[in-house]
Amino acid sequence: MRTRLAVRYLDAGLPLGVKDVGFENFDCAVPEQRGAVAQAQNFVEHYRAGRNLILTGTALGKTHLLVAITKHVAARGAMVRYLNAADLLTGMTETGYGRQSESAVLHGLVGPSLLVIDHIGDVPWTWHLRTLFLRVIDARCSAGLATAIASHTDVAQLQEDVGERTLRRLWAHGDELITLNQKVHRSGTALRSTAEFDRYLNPSKE
Predict the structure, then answer these.
(1) pLDDT band at 147, cuts 50/70/90?
(2) CA 119, 110, 18, 38 torsion: positive or negative?
């Protein structure tokens, strides 16, 4: 059984050395982290409904939570893909003659039941890459497939990185927005509204 799980984790793209990473050993140093664990566990139970997860905040365990989510979903036999944003952008950039076609790359990102992308804020986003990523998110949301992303930036910077349309698409179809070093939001119907999204991005206007 352990060997089978190890193969599933590797197939998902998880790095080596994560066998001991899970929800049960997440270090809850602050109340926000306890709430984040509960919401991440809830996401695992309901991701099949096409819900999305947005994690933001600095040095408070986002990667740990994404790895735990990936492991739980992969252990159930679902198709899940875990990527660092740098690998995602490399894959979307290196298309053309002698390489994968753009459509093949996009298909590989749209296909999994769950797509997990870490370190969104660590890479340079060009207009072309934002456009491709929007196509991925549009297709996944339209197909009812879940996506989980994490960035060390705040949500306003995340919007600059991936683009407003992409972030709104994730938000509108989302279940969770967890901001570890500020406050924990559970989206629900109210927080999916445009007005609430704008208030979150511009708290000074409240």
Answers:
(1) very high
(2) positive
